[in-house]
Amino acid sequence: MSKPSTLGGACIIASVCVGAGMLGLPSAGAGAWTLWSVIAISFTMIMMTLSGWLLLEALKHYELKASFNTVAKDVLSNKVNFINNLSLYFVGGILLYAYISTSGMIFSEMLGVTRELASVLFVAFCSAFVLHSTRAVDRISIVLILFMIISFVLGISGLASNISVPVLFAQAEGETSYSAYALALLPVALTSFGYHHSVSTMRDYYQDEHRAKKAILCGTLIALTFYLGWVICIFGNLPREEFGPVVTAGGGVDALMSALTSAIDSNSIKQALHVFSIAAIVSSFIGVGLGVFDYLADLFGFADTKQGRLKTWGVTFIPPLVFSLVAPFGFVAAIGLAGAAATIWTCIIPATLAKTLRQRVPEQDGFVVPGGNATIYMVIAFGVLTAAFHLLAMLNLLPVFKG
């Protein structure tokens, strides 16, 4: 039997990362604009790759089937593990909320119904795949990913051919640097590299930490290429000052697509981008929904029966749907909030696990993340600061781009 290729694992990691989260990057990075957005997204990719490697290092002390939760339970206190699990659930819930709110706005225009009804119809239809079975999610995900790939290639190639270099590197009068705006981009960028629940899967897949390490790096590089291509193509077509209405509308995908429609002449590009945004939101909603569904089924001990799955469906999808109907707010704000909470289980916990296990087992054999304790402290600092930057931006204590 042939060994799995590095490319195969890299594509798994990349597919977990690339989704609706990337749709919020242009709006979140409009203040920082091209150079500082590229720097912020690239730096986030490096930190998130290192944090995944630290989790991989921690896993090497356990059997191949061991999960993130298994290691956290063994190494951390019950309180810390509870916070870790709570942050995981919160991130899943807030992402579902963001996708429901955004889809309601998109589909209300398409179907000619109210936003509230569109949101209910979206949840009823898309969550049915999760309710039915993992196999149903598998099948619909393949279709959605094909739509995403084809529409992304068509849309991005059309945008790339229309890039205006002066627009891409424009500098507003009275502003010497956009660097301060990049801080508020970090939580959104972090959400776009959230693959950590798949690290244990990669280790088991390769039966080798070193090969899993390469797959993780290649996967995050593929995702980075997607993100930078997307951001550069958007910024090269839509001038910075025209992001004002998009930011005012909360950075929603519908607002971004509307602004692009007025800036781009080609109908084929507009349609391709529209299809891509819809496929990305539906795919991410179903993928995140399945993860939260399985997590809550295990947490509450609901049986894998029709009645049990219906209960799990209720606690998974009803709360974010109700919140989206009662208090919808910006797509980018929701994604950023998810990123701030995700710092716990994507940065702080993996680094803490690696540090504790290095102390528990001083003689380290096998895979060890380079950089010693400096890498661990750097990842923890990145996680803490990213969460802090989001809170400061929410309190208007950081520069926020208004257009």
UniProtKB/TrEMBL annotation:
<comment type="similarity">
    <text>Belongs to the amino acid/polyamine transporter 2 family. Mtr/TnaB/TyrP permease subfamily.</text>
</comment>
<feature type="transmembrane region" description="Helical">
    <location>
        <begin position="113"/>
        <end position="131"/>
    </location>
</feature>
<feature type="transmembrane region" description="Helical">
    <location>
        <begin position="143"/>
        <end position="172"/>
    </location>
</feature>
<dbReference type="InterPro" id="IPR018227">
    <property type="entry name" value="Amino_acid_transport_2"/>
</dbReference>
<feature type="transmembrane region" description="Helical">
    <location>
        <begin position="7"/>
        <end position="27"/>
    </location>
</feature>
<dbReference type="GO" id="GO:0003333">
    <property type="term" value="P:amino acid transmembrane transport"/>
</dbReference>
<keyword id="KW-1133">Transmembrane helix</keyword>
<feature type="transmembrane region" description="Helical">
    <location>
        <begin position="272"/>
        <end position="293"/>
    </location>
</feature>
<keyword id="KW-0813">Transport</keyword>
<keyword id="KW-0472">Membrane</keyword>
<dbReference type="InterPro" id="IPR013059">
    <property type="entry name" value="Trp_tyr_transpt"/>
</dbReference>
<keyword id="KW-0029">Amino-acid transport</keyword>
<dbReference type="Pfam" id="PF03222">
    <property type="entry name" value="Trp_Tyr_perm"/>
</dbReference>
<feature type="transmembrane region" description="Helical">
    <location>
        <begin position="374"/>
        <end position="398"/>
    </location>
</feature>
<keyword id="KW-0997">Cell inner membrane</keyword>
<feature type="transmembrane region" description="Helical">
    <location>
        <begin position="33"/>
        <end position="56"/>
    </location>
</feature>
<dbReference type="GO" id="GO:0015173">
    <property type="term" value="F:aromatic amino acid transmembrane transporter activity"/>
</dbReference>
<keyword id="KW-1003">Cell membrane</keyword>
<feature type="transmembrane region" description="Helical">
    <location>
        <begin position="86"/>
        <end position="107"/>
    </location>
</feature>
<dbReference type="GO" id="GO:0005886">
    <property type="term" value="C:plasma membrane"/>
</dbReference>
<feature type="transmembrane region" description="Helical">
    <location>
        <begin position="178"/>
        <end position="195"/>
    </location>
</feature>
<protein>
    <recommendedName>
        <fullName>Aromatic amino acid permease</fullName>
    </recommendedName>
</protein>
<comment type="function">
    <text>Involved in transporting aromatic amino acids across the cytoplasmic membrane.</text>
</comment>
<feature type="transmembrane region" description="Helical">
    <location>
        <begin position="215"/>
        <end position="237"/>
    </location>
</feature>
<keyword id="KW-0812">Transmembrane</keyword>
